[in-house]
């Protein structure tokens, strides 16, 4: 039995300059492969594939089952791909999963009838059991798997629509994986790792890894506790060191990104891991994510010695009251102290801030801009705060009438207003809160970005850094063309106006009239929703 797992494009037809490997899909693929299944992985996002190109690539693999993993911004694209696949090959079973489904579950079934079942929670063992059941007992016909429900109805972690009642059935939840070492290592031969790079790391490409799962913190804007659980679980240090050695030898990679939500959440584990990196003499550079209040001096010193090149700190706001409101549980003093210590150790810092948090005012937004300049991170990104499904922020905003219910079903992209980069990196107001005080999050995001990057201190810091690290020149160009909106000049040229994005063309106006049902589509209807252009 052959399975094709697809990570759909966030913006169909727009190739991203940066990206990291889709680890969720790759972990599932590795387990399926170990258990005897033939597996292919398609990362349509890094290649910027259109819906039609994605479907063509998927069908070219001649699969017996197709899986899509999606975050909220990929929902529309994933459903469009499923619809076209079901129109072309109604016999192929399609399964959905990923962070968006974990946060919404039955809602996706209400929107669409173009997939067969879904997986909620960590998907490795659930999808394996489903594939084994279909392989061993599935009755595959030109109309589909006639006994699909009988194959999957007892599998924990599966969600499906009852064939007789049409009601959505959610099987018992599957416990989170306790021993992560039971999962096989990611097989990066399934993708082209040289396509993946980020502006905060040196080298032409980077490799991403997970060292742990789970997040014990309570930030109101984040869905990590829902999708990964609140209890921290770690791969063993021996296993991680073994993987790093293998990847370094096989792929020649020396730049790693550890994608854990909070690398130093368990300081004892982080200290022991860094000490092993030093003792083994692996000579790698790496990036991690953590919180400013979780890097005491002894640990940060050892991280620098172990090759920590850059740390991504989610600061979120420069206003103490906003930090309390979103339950960030850090102080501005802790942030300032941490950034100063990183600077002295030569660790580059990447700070992220949110504009438009609950309770935001122009005064608090200006405090954030001022604080971001004061702490002088190496790079900085300002995002529009988004009320993602499943987060406390969404629940609170919905109750207060500050966000539309199921706004994710109405996502669109106005190519004359924003570049693809801005949409991809959360610089737009889809899912943003509405403020009675007139606060405009997207305006303040743009103001903050341009003020921060065009100030003399950043220009000097970047100039001196680039003299020592010429690799950064290409990142300056890429980022500069997005911060300064040259793309809008196209609207001034005859015949060069930016066309509508494919996502807008495929958008169904949910929730009032969802029609992601391939059986109800006509040729005329399909043409208005699915672009067949590259």
Q: What do the pLDDT scores average to?
A: 88
Number of strands: 17
End-to-end distance, in Å? 30 Å
Rg: 23 Å
Structural description of this entry:
With 534 residues, the chain is α/β, with parallel strands linked by helices. 39% of the residues lie in helices and 14% in strands. It has 22 helices and 17 strands. It has helices at residues 23-34, 44-47, 51-60, 75-88, 99-104, 106-111, 124-137, 148-152, 224-228, 237-251, 267-280, 297-305, 320-325, 332-345, 362-375, 392-399, 420-424, 441-453, 456-468, 472-483, 502-506, 523-527, and strands spanning 2-7, 38-43, 65-69, 94-97, 117-119, 140-141, 144-145, 158-161, 168-170, 207-209, 212-213, 233-234, 255-258, 285-290, 308-316, 348-355, 379-384. The strands form 4 sheets. A 7-stranded mixed β-sheet has the order 2-1-3-4-5-8-9, with helices on both faces. Strands 10-13-14-15-16-17 form a 6-stranded parallel β-sheet. Strands 6-7 form a two-stranded antiparallel sheet. Helix 3 packs across helix 4 (75-88) and helix 15 packs parallel to helix 18. The longest helix is centred in the middle third of the chain and has 15 residues, at 237-251. It is globular and about 65 Å long. Residues 506-516 and 521-534 have low confidence and may be disordered.
């Amino acid at each position: 039995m052959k399975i094709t797992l697809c990570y759909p494009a966030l913006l169909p037809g727009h190739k991203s300059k940066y990206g990291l490997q889709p680890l969720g899909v790759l972990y599932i693929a590795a387990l399926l492969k170990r258990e005897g299944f033939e597996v292919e992985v398609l990362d349509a996002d890094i290649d910027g594939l259109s819906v039609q190109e994605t479907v063509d690539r998927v069908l070219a693999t001649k699969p017996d089952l197709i899986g899509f993993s999606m975050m909220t911004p990929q929902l529309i694209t994933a459903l469009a791909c499923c619809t076209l696949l079901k129109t072309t090959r109604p016999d192929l079973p399609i399964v959905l999963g990923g962070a968006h489904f974990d946060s919404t579950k039955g809602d996706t079934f209400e929107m669409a009838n173009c997939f067969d079942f879904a997986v909620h929670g960590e998907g490795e063992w659930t999808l394996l059991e489903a594939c084994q059941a279909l392989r061993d007992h599935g009755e595959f016909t030109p109309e589909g798997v006639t006994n699909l429900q009988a194959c999957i109805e007892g599998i924990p972690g599966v969600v499906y629509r009852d064939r007789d009642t049409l009601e959505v059935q959610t099987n018992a939840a599957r416990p989170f994986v306790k021993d992560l070492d039971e999962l096989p290592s990611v097989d990066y031969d399934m993708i082209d790792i040289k396509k993946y790079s980020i502006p905060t790391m040196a080298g032409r490409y980077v490799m991403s890894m997970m060292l742990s799962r789970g997040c014990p913190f309570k930030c109101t804007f984040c869905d990590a506790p829902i999708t990964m659980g609140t209890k921290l679980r770690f791969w063993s240090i021996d296993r991680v060191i073994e993987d790093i050695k293998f990847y370094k030898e096989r792929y020649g990679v020396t730049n790693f990104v550890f994608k854990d939500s909070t690398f130093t959440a368990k300081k004892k584990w982080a200290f022991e891991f860094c000490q092993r990196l030093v003792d083994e003499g692996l000579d790698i550079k790496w990036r991690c994510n953590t919180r400013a209040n979780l890097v005491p001096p002894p640990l940060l010193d050892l991280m620098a010695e172990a090759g920590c090149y850059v740390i991504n700190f989610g600061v979120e706001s420069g206003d103490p009251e906003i930090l309390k409101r979103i339950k960030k549980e850090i102080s501005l003093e802790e942030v300032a102290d941490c950034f100063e210590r990183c600077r002295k150790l030569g660790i580059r810092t990447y700070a992220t801030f949110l504009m438009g948090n609950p309770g935001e005012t122009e005064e608090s937004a200006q405090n954030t801009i001022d604080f971001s300049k004061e702490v002088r991170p190496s790079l900085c990104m300002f995002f529009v705060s988004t009320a993602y499904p499943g987060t406390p922020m969404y629940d609170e905003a919905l109750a207060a009438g500050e966000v539309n219910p199921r706004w994710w079903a109405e996502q669109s992209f106005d190519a004359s207003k924003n570049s693809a980069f801005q949409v991809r990196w959360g610089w737009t107001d889809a899912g943003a809160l509405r403020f009675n005080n007139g606060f405009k999050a997207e305006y303040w995001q743009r103001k903050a970005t341009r003020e921060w990057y065009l100030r003399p201190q950043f220009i000097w810091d970047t100039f001196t850094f680039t003299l020592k690290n010429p690799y950064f020149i290409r990142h300056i160009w890429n980022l500069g063309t997005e911060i300064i909106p040259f793309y809008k000049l196209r609207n001034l040229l005859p015949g060069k106006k930016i066309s509508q994005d494919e996502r807008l063309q495929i958008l169904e106006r949910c929730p009032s009239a969802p029609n992601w049902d391939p059986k109800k589509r006509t040729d005329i209807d399909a043409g208005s929703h699915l672009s067949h252009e590259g």
